[in-house]
Design a protein that fits this description.
The protein has a 5-stranded mixed barrel. It is built from 1 helix and 7 strands. Strand 4 and strand 5 form a beta hairpin. It has a domain of 105 residues: OB fold (Dihydrolipoamide Acetyltransferase, E2P), CATH 2.40.50.320. The radius of gyration is 20 Å and the shape is globular. The protein is mostly beta strands.
């Protein structure tokens, strides 16, 4: 649960976003369902900004800096190079990635436009139960999100 699953990335490709829109993915388990206000509380959840759909095929990450690489003279496979064109030698240098997100609680608002699925099959809001694992797609991040798509996924054995 702590890492972005391959299934989440595959489902991202099929989500209802258009090119150029910012997207967020929240992964977690349902801890409370408010049927009157059509909202879900997702606890022990992690949220990711997943960038723009147009960036999926590129080699750049929307949140990362420039890559290692050749520098002015081309660099070597082993260490890349620096901005002055000096070739790096030996093993590649480690790149510090983003820190792991801290699990927290999110309130998910469900509208009549929200698509709710169990895998590939569309389901109703009433089919969701406390304890279900969800992938929630939204256009904006924060601790209160308006879901555009919710996908119920099986819990992995950990």
């Amino acid at each position: 649960m702590k890492c972005l699953s391959l299934a989440a990335l595959i489902m991202l490709c099929f989500s209802g976003f258009t090119r150029g829109e910012s997207k967020h993915l929240t992964l977690g388990d349902i801890s409370k369902i408010d049927t009157k206000n059509k909202s879900i509380t997702v606890s022990d959840a992690i949220s990711y900004e997943i960038g723009e759909l147009g960036d999926l095929g590129s080699n750049r990450s929307p949140r990362s800096g420039g890559g290692g690489g050749g520098g002015a003279r081309g660099g070597s496979v082993g260490g890349g190079g620096d901005r002055r064109g000096r070739s790096g030698g030996g093993a590649p240098t480690a790149v510090r990635g983003a820190s792991a997100p801290i699990p927290m609680e999110f309130k998910v608002m469900v509208s009549s436009k929200t698509v709710i699925k169990d895998g590939e099959n569309e389901i109703k809001f009433e089919d969701l139960k406390v304890g279900d694992r969800l992938q929630v797609f939204s256009r904006k991040g924060g601790t209160k999100v308006d879901a555009t798509e919710i996908i119920r996924t099986p819990k992995s054995d950990q």
